[in-house]
Amino acid sequence: MTNGAQSLMKTLVDAGIEVCFSNPGTSEMHFVSALDDEPKMRAVLGLFEGVVTGAADGYARMADKPAVTLLHLGCGLGNGLANLHNARKGKVPVVNIVGDHATYHVKYDAQLQSDIETVARNVSPGFCRTATSTETLGQDVAEAIAAARAKPGQVTTLILPADVSWGEGGVAVEPLSPPTPEAADEATLEAIATAVSSGQKTAILLGGHALREPTILAAAKIAAHKGVTLLAETFPTRMERGAGLPYIERIAYLAELAMVQLSDIKNLILVDAKAPVSFFAYPDKKSYLVPDSCQVHTLAAPDQDALASLNKLVTAVGADRAQPKLQPKKQPVSPVGKLTAEKVCKAVGHLLPDNAILIDEGITSTLMLAAMTAGAPRHDLLTLTGGAIGQGLPNAVGAAIACPERPVYALIGDGTAMYTIQALWTMAREQLNVTSIIFNNAAYSVLNIELDRVGAKDSGDKAKSQLDLTGPPINFAEIAHSMGVHGVRVQTAEDMVKALEYAQSQPGPHLIEAIIPESLNKTKRKILPWLLRSMPSLPLSVSKALKKKLAP
Amino acid sequence: MTNGAQSLMKTLVDAGIEVCFSNPGTSEMHFVSALDDEPKMRAVLGLFEGVVTGAADGYARMADKPAVTLLHLGCGLGNGLANLHNARKGKVPVVNIVGDHATYHVKYDAQLQSDIETVARNVSPGFCRTATSTETLGQDVAEAIAAARAKPGQVTTLILPADVSWGEGGVAVEPLSPPTPEAADEATLEAIATAVSSGQKTAILLGGHALREPTILAAAKIAAHKGVTLLAETFPTRMERGAGLPYIERIAYLAELAMVQLSDIKNLILVDAKAPVSFFAYPDKKSYLVPDSCQVHTLAAPDQDALASLNKLVTAVGADRAQPKLQPKKQPVSPVGKLTAEKVCKAVGHLLPDNAILIDEGITSTLMLAAMTAGAPRHDLLTLTGGAIGQGLPNAVGAAIACPERPVYALIGDGTAMYTIQALWTMAREQLNVTSIIFNNAAYSVLNIELDRVGAKDSGDKAKSQLDLTGPPINFAEIAHSMGVHGVRVQTAEDMVKALEYAQSQPGPHLIEAIIPESLNKTKRKILPWLLRSMPSLPLSVSKALKKKLAP
C-alpha cells in the first residue's frame, strides 16, 4: 500500500524535484518518514522557516526548477512568508507543502489551528489549494508543480492535512506539461522595430529571465546596430554578467537617480520587465519614473518567450550580423588602508573567481559592487527581488546546493543578516561553499537615508535609536563560530583581502565580518551628499547630468 | 498642524499605551519621527519582527494592557505572525500598526507591495482594518485599542498607508470604553451548583484570565468544601502559582496522559477554558479528550466575568467560609552530578526567588518544571499558548519591560531558541533582568516522540536527520556573547546552580546553556518508556492508574 505522503514524494521526484528544504513538525511526520523511500530526494533542514523558503528561492534561481519546501501549519508558513514574497516578486518557482491538522481535528480549534489559506494567498495568489483526499493528492501536487513551473514562474502552496498524508491509497501522478510561451506578435514587432529605427533615444529594459546570456546577447546586437541603450531592472532575480558579456546598467534604487537615467529616453522597450516605479512613495515625488514624453512598448511580457521575441526583433531591425559590444576583463587593484564599504566591494571585485555566484543584499553598503565587479570573471548576480530583507544568507544556501561546484559570495548588511542568521547553521551542516560577507556598520543605514527622504521632521533621540544597532554591537564572527562556520572580523582592506584569499583556499562555509563606518553623517542624515558620493557607480554621462541637477 | 502619525501616537498614549515594540521600515518613518513627540511612549527595537510581536505578547500578559507593535508591510507582519498567533490563542491584547505604501502607490505593484489584509486576517480575524484618511485615523486606532482590550482580549491590526501617516489634519481620539463582561446567569449557576453538590466526581477547569489569585482562591474554596478537583488548561497564558496559593494540576500535553487525568470525571466545569482536545490528531486516537460519560458545563466563557461567576458559585454551594488548601513552601534540594533536564528544573526550583516570572518553552525538557516549582516562592508562569515555537525569549523581553522589578527566567529548548534568537540583543540593549536557560540536547526531541506517536513507520537516516541538531552543535553561550549578553555553558548540576546564583547576583541579562542528554533513546524512539519516566510530574493517583494502563 502507498500512503499519501509516499505518493506525494514519488510525484515530486518523477517531476524532477530533487531537493526538499524543510522545517517539519508533528503534522508532517509521514512526509518526513517518506523521505527515506526516495533516494533521489535530498532533504535539507533549516532551523527557521525563513531559511527554508529563502533557500528554495535561491535554489530555483540557479537550478531553473523548483525545490519543495516542507512547512508546519500556518505559523511555519508565516515564518517563511517574507522570503516567499521575495520569490513571488522574482517570479521564482517554489512548491510549498504546508502540513495541517487532520481534517476531522480542525473543528476542535487546537493550539496550532489557524486559517492557513488566508496566509498562503499572500504569496500564492495563483495556486493555493488544500488537499482533500489521499487518492487525489498526487494530482494536486502534479498541478502545483506545473503551475509553479509555467512561465513566468510562481510560488504555489499545497496544504496537506495529516490524515490525507497518512491515509492509504495514494496514487503518484506523472508530471504535467506546462504551456509553451509565445513570442511577440507581428504588429508589436513592427511597432517596436519602427521605434528602434526612429533615431529617437531608445532603451531596452531587460528583466526576469531576460538577463541570461542568450537574451542579453540578442539585445546587445540591437544596441550595437541601432545605438539603443541597454538597461536592467533594479533588482534582478538572476543576471549573468562580467567579462565577455555585454555590460548592462541597472536602473538605480533611488528614484532621484533612476529619473536621471531615464530622463531623455523617448522609447522604452520592456522585455520581461515592468516600467520602472519608485520603491516607496515619497511626499511630493512621483511614483512612476518614466517621463511623460517617453513611450513604453512591451516586446515580451513575463509569460511570453523573451528570447524568441528579441531574436525576431534582431532580424526585423537588420541586426543579425551585428557584433555585440562585450565587457573586457578588468578587475580593480587590491584595496589598502582603513576598511570602507567601497573597499570591501573592491576586494570582492579584485578576487572574484570564475563562475561565481554573487548575492547582493548589502543595501547601502554594496552601492559600488556593480562597478567593482563589472569586468570581473563571468558570474551570476542574485538580488533582493521583493525588498523583504533576510533573503541573502538563505539564498546562498539554496544557490550552493543547486551549484555545488560554484563558489557563492553573499554580501549582506548587518541589519539584514540578523533576520535569517540561522542560515549559517545549514551552511555548516551541508558544508556549503559559501563566503558570507557581513557589512557591520551598526545601523539600519538605509533608514537613516529614508528618514530624510520621506520628509519626516528632524528626528529626536528615540527616532534615531530605532535605526541604530550600536548598543550592543553585534559580533558576527562569533555568531558564525557558534554555528560551526569559520568566522573572522576584519578592519583593514589588507585583512579583507587576506580573509577572502583564505576563504578561497579552504572548502566549506566562511564568514567575513567587515567593520565599516556608517554611510551617512549621523548629525546631518541628508540625502544630497550621499547621492553625490554614490555617483561613481553610474556612467559618466549620468553622473554629470546629476551633478548639474542636484548641486546646491 | 498635526500629521496622522502624531494623532495616532497621541491616541495611543491617551489610552494608556506606553510601549511600542518596533522594527520599522521606510513606510513607518513618520511614526518613528512622532515617537519623540510623546515622552510617555517607550520605543523598543527588535532586530526581527518575531521578537517584536512576542515581546508585545509577553508585555501584555504581565501589564494587563496592550503594547503597540510597529511592523513594515506584509513581510514584516509575516515575520511576526507566529508570535501573534500565540497571542491570539492566549487571548492576549496586542495592537499592530502595519505600515503600508501610500494609497496612490499601491497600483504600481512595487517590490514590497502585497495583500497585507489577507495575512492580517489569520491573527486578527476580529479587527483588521486599513486606515483610509488622516482625519479618521485617530478613530481607527481608538477602535483598534478598544477591540484589543475588550474581554477576552485579542490581536487587532491597523494597516497604515504612508500618506495617511504623513498627511496633515490628524485628530487624536479619547479612549473608548470596552463593554463590561457579564457573570453567569442564574439557570447556569443552578445547574452547575447541582452538579458540584451531586457527589459525582467533578472538576473545575480554569484557563485564560481565571488563573490569577482571586479566581484560583474562589475555585479552591469550592474544592475545599465540595471535594472537586481543580485543573488548569495545558498552556496557560499566565498562571499565578507557588507557595501560599492553591496547587492546581495542569492538563497534560500528551493526550495519553490527559485522558488518564480526565478518565473518571463526571462533571467538568469550564471557567474561561475550553474542553480539552488533543494538541495534534493521531491515527486511531481521539481528538476530543473528555470521556463520553462526562458532562461539560460552562460557568464562564472567555468573554464573561470569570471571577464574579465563580464567586456566585461559591455562595450557591455554601462555600463562602471554606478555607482553600494552600501550597506550603517546599523547594527541592540542590541537584548534584551529571546534568539532565530534570536537574535543570530542580536547580530552578531550588533557587527561584520571590515574585519571579517563569517562562516555560522547554518543550520536552521542562516536563518536571511544574513539580519542581510547585512549592517555590510565588511566581507567574507564562507558556506557549499557540504552539508556535520561538515565543519564550521574546516573551521574556516583554515581561521584563512590563515588570522591571521582577526577575524573569526563560526556560527554552534549543530548537525553539533558534527561532527568535535575536531577542538576546534587545535584552542586552535594554539591560533586562532576564535569565535565559537553554536546554541544549541537540535535537527536536518532541518530534522524535511524535514520529512514533503518529505511527510513521520505522524511520531511516534522512527522516532522523530532520530531527537532529547535532551537526554542527550550536554554542548558545557564544551566541549570547555575540549579542552582548553574559553567557555560560554548564554540564554539571553543580555548575548549573552556580550559574543561576551568579545570574541572580548581577543585574542585566544572562544566558545559561545547559548541556543535557537527549530525552529519547535514539535507537528506540518509543513513547512508552518516556511516558513512564514522565510520571513523577503527575499526582500519585494519576501515575498509578497510568502505570496500570500502559505497562506492557
Write a brief structural summary.
With 552 residues, chain A is an alpha/beta fold.
Describe the model.
The structure is a homodimer of 552-residue chains. By secondary structure, chain A is of the alpha/beta class. Chain A has 23 helices and 18 strands. The first copy, chain A, has a seven-stranded mixed beta sheet with strand order 9-14-13-15-16-18-17, sandwiched between helices. A six-stranded parallel beta sheet of chain A has the order 2-1-3-4-6-5, sandwiched between helices. In chain A, helix 2 links the parallel strand 1 and strand 2 (42-45). At the A-B interface, helix 2, helix 4, helix 5, helix 6 and helix 8 of A face helix 2, helix 4, helix 5, helix 6 and helix 8 of B.
Seen as an oligomer or otherwise, the chain set is homodimer
Number of strands of chain A: 18
Briefly note the CATH topology name of the largest domain in chain A.
Rossmann fold
Helical percentage of chain A: 25-40%
Which CATH architecture of the largest domain in chain A would you pick?
3-Layer(aba) Sandwich
What is the number of helices of chain A? 23
Q: Please report the first level of CATH classification, the CATH class of the largest domain in chain A.
A: Alpha Beta
* Major sheet size, sense and barrel closure of chain A: 7 strands, mixed
Cα distance spanning the termini of chain A:
77 Å
Please list the strands of the largest sheet of chain A in the order they lie side by side: 9-14-13-15-16-18-17
Average pLDDT of chain A, rounded to a whole number, is 92
The H-level CATH homologous superfamily of the largest domain in chain A, spelled out, is Thiamin diphosphate (ThDP)-binding fold, Pyr/PP domains
Choose one word for the global shape of chain A. globular
Domain Thiamine pyrophosphate enzyme N-terminal TPP-binding (chains A, B): 3-113
Keywords (chains A, B): Thiamine pyrophosphate
Protein name (chains A, B): Acetolactate synthase I/II/III large subunit
GO molecular function, one term (chains A, B): thiamine pyrophosphate binding
